[in-house]
């Protein structure tokens, strides 16, 4: 690609930049990272890209989910297994509901960096830098811990590697083996009618698996194991740059926009990276970096995006109009989606781009309780998804997937769901370091309900 290189972003204005005092430390960290091997391969990236092409064409569905802010501490067996199992269960329900293959992408193994509304905050009367994510600074409320520490960039690589290693090992050792019984844990569902409805879905999924076993279809790859891809916001461009390598395209790659024939630049920090709503300026550093990589990429699309700006962005990051190369992750809020999504879809349709359209029903629906706790209501999340599906249907477009903030743990961060979590109950296990996540029961319930939309 003409006039692009992994560091050409440094000539552009940048938002959410991190200013390090320890400039030698930054040099050392980046030169270390530069020598380390890719975390993911071009073959895996290409497989995902080809699958997302099917999503864009309405032939598959993509489920993306994980923490808002991953911490180094989350790199442990229990939390990784819980998340992988949850995504797997949700995907089974969605396969049953939408009657399409489901592509699974976790926000994991690199989802550390966070954009913040303000670079500083005041805690107990002391002004200090805001927490920017475990790869940048510490969460502890003291000025020293909050100082950006470049060695954390190297730690981010190794925690990503350890997480990814355990995901791969456990998947290939049968964690996703559907022959072993899954715990669907519906004990928490209070309302008998809803419990009955969910039990019916679980029974349908189990019957389908039994049938496959009986007729021997389960011998095919896909029942013993499953693919789960990794993703994160590509916010820290120093980090992304060092892991972006000129590599040979695998045979199945479509490389219309991916650099020279034969080779292309691949971001190897994860399979899929996205540009956040705060860093998607047309002339900015993030868009410059993203336009040069061969990976499938995401762009968050909020209410402030103008329809013509959206098309210009697509032209910049995907001039060859590769189908499914870009995932547009819409996040307006349940009250606003009807005002913005139809115009965005119409502009994209008129442009000839065929992206994946994914609904993030989390980020437009964040609100604070009277006592100041950040939360999201299950009904708003579901409502934005319901409207997204309907608006796409009406426009002759496809809602290709959903993008959720969730955890496999029993946290109390979002209000509502079948266990009837109220604002008063939020304090019980509110452990997020950034945005409120769906807990494992709420997330599975959302999959049941979205599957139901498709079955209507
Ligand atoms: C996020 O996905 O955690 C996030 C910060 O989203 P957005 O860029 O849409 O605000
Ligand atoms: Mn978030």
TrEMBL record:
Reactions accelerated catalytically: D-erythrose 4-phosphate + phosphoenolpyruvate + H2O = 7-phospho-2-dehydro-3-deoxy-D-arabino-heptonate + phosphate
Pathway: Metabolic intermediate biosynthesis; chorismate biosynthesis; chorismate from D-erythrose 4-phosphate and phosphoenolpyruvate: step 1/7
InterPro entries linked: Aldolase_TIM, DAHP_synth_2
Chain positions recorded as Mn(2+) binding sites: 68, 363, 405, 435
Pfam (any one): DAHP_synth_2
GO MF term list: 3-deoxy-7-phosphoheptulonate synthase activity
Manner of cofactor binding, per the entry note: Binds 1 divalent cation per subunit. The enzyme is active with manganese, cobalt or cadmium ions.
GO process annotations (BP): amino acid biosynthetic process; aromatic amino acid family biosynthetic process; chorismate biosynthetic process
EC number(s) given by UniProt: 2.5.1.54
Cofactor: Mn(2+); Co(2+); Cd(2+)
Transmembrane segments: none
Signal peptide from the UniProt entry: none
Residues annotated for phosphoenolpyruvate binding in this entry: 107, 300, 331
SUPFAM superfamilies xrefs: Aldolase (SSF51569)
Keywords (A to Z) from UniProt: Amino-acid biosynthesis, Aromatic amino acid biosynthesis, Cadmium, Cobalt, Manganese, Transferase
Enzyme class, broadest EC rank: transferase
Family of this protein: Belongs to the class-II DAHP synthase family.
Name the record gives this protein: Phospho-2-dehydro-3-deoxyheptonate aldolase
